[in-house]
């Protein structure tokens, strides 16, 4: 019996279980503050599309549930975060509803296998640079404002730890899928950067802008 495989399975299901509440601290932070200040709506929106691609990539390839079902819960919580940010910013515009319809259609097309698998694999590969692009606005905003606002340290640590564990489970249960290994490695790095920013800047008010 391969003990390392059993450990991988166990860790995989641990991640899936904790993913159910992974972003709850972030959700509560926004809810309690009654503002999404410090949380980049652009970053969360892009991340939501990327989670949809990754979930369906694993699903269509019949990978074990322990290797990917956390994407479903993270995706659901991201949608809640987006709704809270938009609600408190009073931005339920036609653009919001258009993007919502596009996302639902996009997810259903992927889920029901209407995309050729080769195209889905290409989309999964593209999630790597887009994941970095999704985090850049958040990291840049933190740096410029010298504040991380409503960002949750607990959630970010959980995401970074999850990425590290996923590197191990990918090696053991997905034959070291190169695309996913790169994705999880970069995911861990960018989340560690955000953790450092939270520790340095905290949730202080943004730095005052200097007059010209």
TrEMBL record:
Signal peptide region: none
Spans traversing the lipid bilayer: 6-24, 36-59, 71-89, 96-116, 122-139, 151-169, 181-202
Protein name: Mannose-P-dolichol utilization defect 1 protein homolog
InterPro entries (UniProt xref): MannP-dilichol_defect-1 (IPR016817), PQ-loop_rpt (IPR006603)
Membrane topology per record: Multi-pass membrane protein
Family: Belongs to the MPDU1 (TC 2.A.43.3) family.
Taxonomic classification: Eukaryota, Amoebozoa, Evosea, Archamoebae, Mastigamoebida
UniProt keyword annotation of Membrane present: yes
């Amino acid at each position: 019996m391969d003990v390392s495989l059993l450990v991988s399975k166990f860790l995989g299901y641990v991640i899936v279980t904790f993913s159910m509440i992974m972003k709850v601290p972030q959700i509560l932070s926004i809810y309690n503050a009654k503002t999404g200040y410090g949380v980049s709506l652009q970053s969360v929106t892009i991340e939501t599309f990327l989670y949809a691609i990754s979930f369906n990539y694993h699903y269509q390839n019949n990978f074990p549930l322990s290797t990917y079902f956390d994407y479903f819960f993270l995706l659901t919580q991201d949608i809640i975060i987006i709704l809270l940010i938009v609600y408190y910013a009073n931005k339920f515009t036609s653009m919001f509803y258009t993007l919502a319809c596009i996302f639902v259609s996009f997810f259903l097309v992927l889920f029901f296998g209407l995309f050729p698998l080769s195209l889905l694999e290409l989309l999964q590969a593209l999630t790597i640079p887009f994941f970095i692009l999704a985090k850049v606005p958040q990291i840049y905003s933190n740096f410029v404002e010298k504040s991380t606002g409503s960002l949750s340290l607990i959630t970010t640590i959980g995401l970074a730890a999850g990425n590290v564990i996923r590197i191990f489970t990918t090696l053991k249960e997905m034959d070291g899928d190169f695309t996913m290994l790169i994705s999880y490695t970069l995911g861990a790095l960018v989340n560690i950067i955000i953790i450092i920013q939270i520790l340095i800047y905290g949730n202080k008010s943004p730095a005052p802008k200097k007059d010209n």
